[in-house]
Amino acid sequence: MDIRQLMYFVEVVKQKSMTRASEKLHISQPALSKGIKSLEEEIGMTLINRSNKTHELTDAGQIVYEYAQKIMAQMDEMATTLHDMTNLARGSITIGIPPMIGSLFFPKVIAAFHKAYPNIHINIKEYGAAKVVKSVEEGEFEIGIAVLPLTDESSFNVFHLVSEEIKLIVNEQHKLADRNQVHMKELKEEEFIFYSEEFALYEMMKRGFINEGFEPNIIFKSSQWDFMIEIVAANLGISMLPESICSRTTNNQVRFMDLKPVTNWQLAVITKKDRYLSVAGRRFIDFILQQ
């Protein structure tokens, strides 16, 4: 049994005539009759009483007709849904975003995308950058926002978004507060306010100091950049944050300066290679890259 046989059968019932049904379906009457006969043979029952010109249904024919109508309706609904998805009349996207990144760059972008495509549902989950990468790889998220470099980029499609420098943050009373730039080696005796381990910046900056010959003395860790700045403002240590965060800060008790050697904070959209990416997902990526 195939969908074409059911389509032929439904049309014959609607038209109550093989001739009119064949005209409607744009096939020959013998081909239509053969299709109906083949359906009856497969089911093992007569579906249409051919003893008169009205082609009345048998009891078995009535049951098949009711189910066939439901099947045809579902086929139509599937086609409509696929068409709607292609034209972005509906759809959904699941995105993993690290909290720091989400608060910086995505509120306006997501608002603009929602305005442009109001029927696309966006499901956002906030994880640390390392967990976002793992979740994209395991299929929990269709799209992830990650900090580069990835441990292994071979499993992902990578779309570069933003690159900016990491700045040093000190209290206004700190001995380095009047400097325009500081080298990492000069910070060996300092106490650091660091990101939590789930942030990619934790490992990135820690490795940077180790490469300069020492391990940073981390006295406090946080996942909230505004709280980290408040701790520095209270003169409890120094910290490092991306330039875009520094430019948002209104606290006049801290100072920002260049940190040498330069460490770039690079953001990218990632998707899993060889995994189907929805039409809505592809449009979202195009949209944020344009933004």
Characterise this structure.
One of its GO terms (cellular component) is cytosol. Keywords: DNA-binding, Transcription, Transcription regulation. Pfam families: HTH_1, LysR_substrate. InterPro entries: HTH-type_LysR_regulators, LysR_HTH_N, LysR_subst-bd, WH-like_DNA-bd_sf, WH_DNA-bd_sf. With 291 residues, the protein is α/β, with parallel strands linked by helices. The chain folds into three domains: 3-86, Orthogonal Bundle (Arc Repressor Mutant, subunit A); 91-161 and 267-290, D-Maltodextrin-Binding Protein, domain 2 (3-Layer(aba) Sandwich), CATH 3.40.190.10; 164-264, D-Maltodextrin-Binding Protein, domain 2, CATH 3.40.190.290. The chain is 45% helix and 25% strand. The strands form three sheets. Strands 3, 4, 5, 6, 7, 10, 11 and 12 form an eight-stranded mixed β-sheet that branches. Strands 1-2 form a two-stranded antiparallel sheet. α1 packs across α4. The longest helix has 28 residues, at 59-86. The chain is rod-shaped. The model has no long low-confidence stretch (mean pLDDT 90).
Percent strand equals: 25-35%
How many domains comprise the coordinates? 3
Number of helices: 10
- Assembly status: single chain
CATH topology of the largest domain: D-Maltodextrin-Binding Protein, domain 2
Write the CATH architecture name of the largest domain.
3-Layer(aba) Sandwich
Largest sheet: 8 strands, mixed
Task: Specify the structural class.
Answer: alpha/beta
Separation of the first and last Cα atoms: 51 Å
Please report the first level of CATH classification, the CATH class of the largest domain. Answer: Alpha Beta
SSE run: HHHEEHEHEHEEEEHEHEHEEH
